[in-house]
Specification:
- Helix 6 packs antiparallel against helix 7, helix 6 packs parallel to helix 8 and helix 6 packs antiparallel against helix 9.
- The longest helix has about 35 residues.
- The chain folds into 3 domains: about 90 residues; about 80 residues, Butyryl-CoA Dehydrogenase, subunit A, domain 2, CATH 2.40.110.10; about 140 residues, Up-down Bundle (Butyryl-CoA Dehydrogenase, subunit A, domain 3), CATH 1.20.140.10.
- The strands form 3 sheets. A 4-stranded mixed sheet has the order 1-4-5-8, covered by helices on one side. Strands 2-3-7-6 form a 4-stranded antiparallel sheet, with no helix packed on it. A two-stranded antiparallel ribbon has the order 9-10.
- The chain starts with 6 loop residues before the first helix and ends with a helix.
- With about 325 residues, the chain is an alpha+beta fold.
- Helices cover about 55% and strands about 15% of the residues.
């Protein structure tokens, strides 16, 4: 597998980066957090541009390029949940015009005379409160359900731009036609990879802002970036980002090629992204000093998005344990 972008992928990266910079600037992110600006038009622009059609696993690398830029911009739309969690489970019933998300656990299914009955509560589901469709993974299979059929309650979290909700199915009846034959394990690998590369993008944003700050901020008549201790922290963040980015794109390649190594690759990418955010969070705040703790500083949005990426679908320690168990079984 070639771990370098070809000419088309580099052009795609430049195109996405330019578009995101124009359509999702820092002013929009702050407006949503402070004034409740509606991110709906931004989601509509993604749909119109065809970015929501990158659901085919063969486009995993191109999708990862988009997600990295979205992580850097702290994207406020349901793109991540729709493309990396819902679409892989929906299969050929995926509609790029609709937002969706996945319910991976907490719900059971049993048959009755009319079809299937879904019961249970799933906690902390990404973007469930603004999804139109839910892909529900149960012991009886995967079911596509209208979000309106469930009781969905948004849960407040520390990232003001992130939508997290609890989803309850109070004995919801669905028919056999709502059961889809897709691979939930493979879908989870895609979800992990999507979270990993999004976290990498957020960490890159932390580094970008920190580097600009240490170039501008002066102490003793010189930029603080000229001090070796400051440089060491910036380099530590850079090395962590490069490691996590490489593993995330490798995981995307294994998905694109339907390589059986994707199971390990996805966990490795998620673990590396978790380690990366830890370094970027700690050193990023230290490089900003007290300014890093203020609401007025935009670094807070990247810090919170990076930390959120670590907490969803298992942290670094959990995925390192999975990797260790996998190798012990070889």
């Amino acid at each position: 597998m070639l771990l370098e972008f070809d000419a088309d992928q580099r052009l795609w990266q430049d195109t996405v980066r330019d578009a995101v910079a124009k359509q999702c600037p820092a002013t929009l992110i702050r407006g949503i957090a402070e004034d409740g600006v509606d991110p709906g038009p931004l989601w509509g622009s993604y749909v119109e541009a065809g970015w929501t059609e990158l659901a085919d696993p063969e486009n995993a690398v191109e999708l990862a390029i988009v997600l990295e830029e979205f992580g850097r911009a702290t994207d406020p739309t349901p793109f991540l949940a729709t493309l990396t969690q819902y679409a892989p489970l929906a299969g050929d019933r995926y509609d790029p015009q609709q937002a969706g998300t996945a319910v991976f656990d907490g719900v059971t299914a049993h048959r009755d005379a009319e079809g299937w009955v879904l019961s249970g509560t799933a906690r902390y589901v990404l973007d469930a409160d603004r999804a139109q469709q839910l892909a529900v993974v149960t012991d009886g299979g995967v079911f596509l359900v209208e979000a309106a059929a469930a009781t969905i309650t948004r849960v407040p979290v520390f990232d003001p731009l992130l939508h997290i909700a609890d989803v309850t199915f109070p004995a919801v009846h669905i028919c056999d036609d709502d059961r889809v034959h897709t691979d939930p394990e493979r879908a989870r690998h895609i979800a992990l990879t999507g979270l990993a590369i999004t976290t990498v993008g957020a960490c890159q944003r932390i580094l970008d802002l920190a580097l600009q700050h240490v170039k501008d901020r002066q102490q003793f008549g010189v930029p603080i970036g000229s001090f070796q201790a400051v440089q060491h922290k910036a380099v530590d963040i850079h090395v962590a980002i490069e490691r996590a980015r490489t593993l995330a794109y490798f995981a995307a390649l294994t998905i694109s090629a339907d390589d059986p190594r994707r199971r390990l690759a996805a966990s490795m990418a998620k673990a590396a992204a978790g380690d990366c955010q830890s370094v970027a969070f700690r050193h990023g705040l230290q490089l900003f000093g007290a300014m890093g703790f203020t609401w007025e500083n935009d670094v807070q949005f990247a810090l919170k998005r990076a930390k959120s990426g670590e907490l969803m679908l298992g942290g670094a320690a959990e995925h390192r344990a999975l990797i260790a168990d996998e190798y012990r079984d070889l």
